[in-house]
C-alpha cells in the first residue's frame, strides 16, 4: 500500500485566470515545525562509519570521480529534504495537457521562459490537443518562441499531439491508461522526447510511478559518490525505483525537492554544503572545493 497516500498537498489549485507558478521556489520549513518525515529519522546515517570510504581526501567534485559509495538510501534523502523544505506543489499546471506542454518546453531553458510561452498559448486559446493539432506550424512556432529552440519544440509538440490522435483518438485518459512500460516506449519513439521528458509526462501528467532523473539528480549523487559520470539515465532511475515503493506522489515530491536543492544549494560552482539539508549524507572523505 502506498505510504504516501495520506498526503493531499499535491492537488493543483484551479484559478479563474491563468497564472503560472514558479517552479521549485525555495521553501524552508522552520526548525520548530512539527516533523514532516515519513520514515524513522533515527535510521539516518550520521556517523562516518556509515560510509565505507577510504582515508579522507579532498577532491574537486567538478573534475574528479569520487569513490563509489554503495550505501545510497533514497528514503533517508527524501526524509531530510522533505523535513527541510516541505511540499513543493509540483507540477505547476492547471490541466494534464498543460503539464505535458510544460514538460516539452522546459528542455534546455528556464521555467520563466516556459511560463511566457504557456501564457502565449493560453492567450491564444491553444492549450488543448485539438487546438495544437489544428494550428499552423508557423503560428505555433511564433507562440512558442520565448521558450527557445522553438522550431524544434513546435515539431515535438505537433508530433506528440499527432501521436495522441492517431493512437488514442485524442484522449489523454486512454493514453495514460496504457501500462507504464508500453507508454514510455511509445513516448521515447517520438521526435524530441528523451527519457527525462517522457518520464516527466508519465509522472506529472499521467501519475505513473516512474522516477524522473535530471542533471540535478546526477550532480548530487555524483558528488555524494553514489554514481559516476558514466552511469546511464536508467541506471540512476532504477537506483531510486528499486529502493522506494512505486508511489507516484512520492516520486513527484522527491524529484521536485531534488530540483530545489540542485538550484539553490548544489550549484555547479561553489555548492553550499554547509547550509544544505543533504550535508549529513556527504561523505567526509569527499569534501567539495568551494
Ligand atoms: S551537501 Fe548539498 S550542496 Fe553539498 S554536494 Fe551534497 S547536495 Fe550538493
Characterise this structure:
The protein has helices at residues 74-85, 96-105, 111-123, 129-134, 137-144, 150-168, 172-176, 180-188, 195-205, 215-223, 233-241, 248-264; strands at residues 57-58, 286-287. The longest helix has 19 residues, at 150-168. The chain is built from 12 helices and 2 strands; from the N terminus they run βααααααααααααβ. The protein folds into 2 domains: 41-89 and 213-287, Endonuclease Iii, domain 2 (Orthogonal Bundle); 96-205, Hypothetical protein, domain 2 (Endonuclease III, domain 1, Orthogonal Bundle), CATH 1.10.340.30. The radius of gyration is 20 Å and the shape is globular. 44% of the residues lie in helices and 1% in strands. The model is unreliable at 1-22 and 24-67 (pLDDT under 50). With 290 residues, it is mainly alpha-helical. Strands 1-2 form a two-stranded parallel sheet.
Distinctive features:
two-stranded parallel ribbon; 2 domains; Endonuclease III, domain 1; disordered N terminus; globular; Endonuclease Iii, domain 2; binds iron/sulfur cluster; mainly alpha; 290 residues; 12 helices; 44% helix
Amino acid at each position: 500500500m502506498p505510504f504516501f497516500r495520506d498526503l493531499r498537498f499535491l492537488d493543483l489549485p484551479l484559478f479563474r485566470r491563468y497564472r503560472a507558478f514558479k517552479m521549485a521556489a525555495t521553501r524552508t520549513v522552520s526548525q520548530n515545525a512539527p516533523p514532516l518525515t515519513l520514515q524513522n529519522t533515527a535510521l539516518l546515517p550520521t556517523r562516518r562509519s556509515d560510509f565505507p570510504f577510504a582515508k579522507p581526501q579532498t577532491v574537486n567534485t567538478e573534475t574528479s570521480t569520487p569513490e563509489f559509495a554503495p550505501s545510497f538510501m533514497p528514503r533517508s534523502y527524501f526524509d531530510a529534504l522533505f523535513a527541510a523544505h516541505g511540499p513543493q506543489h509540483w507540477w505547476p499546471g492547471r490541466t494534464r495537457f498543460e503539464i505535458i506542454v510544460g514538460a516539452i518546453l522546459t528542455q534546455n531553458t528556464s521555467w520563466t521562459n516556459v511560463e511566457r510561452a504557456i501564457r502565449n498559448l493560453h492567450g491564444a486559446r491553444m492549450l488543448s490537443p485539438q487546438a495544437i493539432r489544428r494550428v499552423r506550424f508557423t503560428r505555433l512556432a511564433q507562440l512558442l518562441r520565448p521558450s527557445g529552440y522553438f522550431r524544434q519544440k513546435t515539431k515535438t509538440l505537433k508530433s506528440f499531439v499527432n501521436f495522441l490522435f492517431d493512437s488514442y483518438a485524442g484522449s489523454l485518459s486512454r493514453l495514460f491508461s496504457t501500462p507504464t512500460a508500453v507508454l514510455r516506449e511509445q513516448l521515447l519513439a517520438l521526435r524530441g522526447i528523451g527519457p527525462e521528458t517522457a518520464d516527466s509526462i508519465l509522472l506529472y501528467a499521467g501519475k505513473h510511478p516512474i522516477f524522473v532523473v535530471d542533471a540535478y539528480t546526477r550532480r548530487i549523487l555524483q558528488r555524494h559518490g553514489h554514481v559516476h559520470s558514466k552511469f546511464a539515465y536508467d541506471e540512476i532511475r532504477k537506483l531510486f525505483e528499486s529502493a522506494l515503493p512505486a508511489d507516484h506522489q512520492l516520486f513527484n515530491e522527491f524529484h521536485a525537492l531534488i530540483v530545489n536543492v540542485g538550484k539553490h544549494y548544489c550549484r555547479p560552482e561553489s555548492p553550499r554544503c554547509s547550509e544544505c539539508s543533504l550535508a549529513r549524507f556527504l561523505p567526509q572523505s569527499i569534501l567539495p572545493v568551494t
